[in-house]
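We treat protein structure as text, and this decision shapes the records that our systems exchange. The tokens are whole numbers drawn from a learned vocabulary of local backbone shapes. Below, we set out a record of this kind in full and without editing:
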Amino acid sequence: MTKLYLILYSQKNEVVASSLFAAGSGFSCKSLSKLQNSMSLFKTAMHDKNQESTSYKTFNGTVETMIDTDPLWFILENVDVGDATDEQSNGAVISQVLANAGFETRMILLEAFNFALPQRRTRLFILAVNKNRATAELANSPSEILDMAVTELLPICKTAPLPVDAFLDDDTSDRVVNEQQRRQQVRTSKNRRTETEETDELDLDASLKGGKWKDMHMQLAVSRGLTWPLELPTGLTENPWFATLPAREQEIIAFVQKKNDERIALNQSPYRFADLYHSANRTPVSDAGVVPTVLPSGTVWDFTRSRLLTGHEQMGLQGIQMEFAHEISNNQAQDLAGNAFPATVVAALQMAMLCAMQFPSAMEDVAMDQVESLLNMILG
């Protein structure tokens, strides 16, 4: 959670008041997404105060934190939880809880692609203004602030994404080479284990139609009119990156390559990226202009560069610079990337909210100091 405090000083430079100006947080999406079969469980958990539900615990904890710290405004992020105007949606539940806690809110779905990031990432953002503090500290109402921020100011911040390659390291860079070598060492170590120990590649698709991944791949090949076993793409068998992949992921690349061959024959652009983490029958793919949604466990294969994207590159695709890259591992960077807010989207929301707020003339100097502090945090 990010926080910025407004501290008021007396003429003797003694702190006389300290209050939270702004905050930002995410919370568990396990049973919140409208795409989840279990989405109804969140409403039940909220009603029953079910401490076993991670979605209940993290949302309830977030709301309690906002009540305790009493910020002037804050931003929350999650997956699409449904329209707040639909009384049956989780969005309506969340909106009502925040309203009861004293916050005016607006919910908006935003795509990272519209804020300079070539990534297919859609997330719900909840903007909230503290009604009591706004009445005491601001010259315009929470509704006026939120409406202006969402409808007038935020659209100004939208911009086309940069090319994907602008976010990727050179294939011969130390970071890329070191990650390939690390993966090779891990694969070599796994190959030395006994056959009974090598079960990690058999579990991912175990609950899907077709049973284990090998059976599912065979059925998928038959349904697509492909010969079985699949032939691995020409030129990849000697690829050092490809050699580090488990057999399941290698076959997913083969499936996507077959699809690319069909697209090329039809004069269509081939897919450039595929997230190998998912099963073969629902592999996220994308063209050269955008990368599939960056996820904590994502293993994104670049067909142009014939390698995986590194965790640090995926952080970059979230708009996050890695000045401290040497301090964290590739896997840590990948997990951070999958859980992080898209930085440019959050920056746009913060600037829209700040620009929408009107401060009484008596507070202008103090307000400008806190706004300047927050902008310095946003812009680095």
Summary: The longest helix spans residues 247-265. The chain has 13 helices and nine strands.
